[in-house]
Write a structure and sequence with these properties.
Elements lengths: L2 H11 L6 H20 L2 H17 L10 H19 L6 H8 L10 H20 L2 H12 L4 H8 L3 H25 L1
Helix pairs in contact: 2-3, 2-4, 2-7, 3-4, 4-8, 6-9, 7-9, 8-9
C-alpha cells in the first residue's frame, strides 16, 4: 500500500468523510470495468460497485492495510457479486446478455472488415466468459483483464498461489474450449 493511501485511510478513520471521495474517484472506473467483465451486466456491475464502496466506507476501520485498498475493495465487491448471484436466477439467454452489454470497443485504425471481425470476436469472448463458473471467470478477469500477478489474485480470492495457478489453467482451458465450440457452431 502506498503512503498516500495510508494517509487517506487514516484521515477517513479519523472522521474525514470527504477523504473517502479521493479513493472513490481513483478506483471507481477500474472497479466498474472489472466488474462488467466478471458479472457481464453493466447495471449489475454498477450496483455491486456502489454497494462495495458503501461497505468499504462503513468497514474502513477494519482494513488491516496489509494489501492495497483496491485489493480489499475488489474482494468486497466479489463477495457482494457472489451473494447477489446466489440470490438470483441465472440469466435467461445469451441474447439478453448481448442486449445488456453491447459490443466491446475496437481499434478504429483497422480496416472495416477487420473491425467487424474484432467486434464479433469480442462478443464471442464475452459469451464464452459468461459460460465459465464464477470462480473461473473471476480468475480470468483478475489475471487477463486486470493484469494482476498470482500473489495479488491469491490475496484477493483468499486462495493459495498454487490453487490460483491451477484454476487459471483450468479456466483458460475451459474458455478455449468454449471459444472453439462457438467458432465451430458458426
Amino acid at each position: 500500500m502506498s503512503n498516500e493511501e495510508a494517509l487517506i485511510i487514516e484521515q477517513i478513520v479519523g472522521g474525514d468523510a470527504a477523504a473517502f471521495e479521493i479513493l472513490v474517484r481513483k478506483y471507481q472506473a477500474r472497479l466498474f470495468n472489472s466488474l462488467i467483465h466478471a458479472i457481464g451486466c453493466p447495471e449489475e456491475a454498477e450496483d455491486v460497485a456502489q454497494e462495495a464502496f458503501v461497505k468499504a466506507y462503513s468497514k474502513i476501520d477494519t482494513f488491516k492495510q496489509n494489501s492495497s485498498f483496491y485489493t480489499w475493495l475488489y474482494r468486497i465487491s466479489i463477495n457482494i457479486a457472489i451473494s447477489r448471484h446466489r440470490q438470483k436466477k441465472p440469466k435467461s439467454s445469451l441474447d439478453e446478455y448481448r442486449m445488456n452489454v453491447g459490443h466491446e470497443p475496437v481499434d478504429e485504425s483497422s480496416q472495416p472488415g477487420q473491425k467487424l471481425d474484432l467486434e464479433e470476436r469480442a462478443v464471442q469472448v464475452q459469451a464464452a466468459l459468461q459460460l465459465l463458473s464464477d470462480e473461473h471467470r473471476s480468475i480470468i478477469v483478475l489475471r487477463e483483464i486486470e493484469d494482476l500477478d498470482y500473489e495479488a489474485i491469491s490475496e484477493i480470492l483468499k486462495l493459495p498461489v498454487g490453487t490460483v495457478r491451477s484454476r487459471l489453467h483450468r479456466a483458460r482451458s475451459q474458455l478455449r474450449g468454449h471459444l472453439e465450440q462457438v467458432v465451430i457452431e458458426k
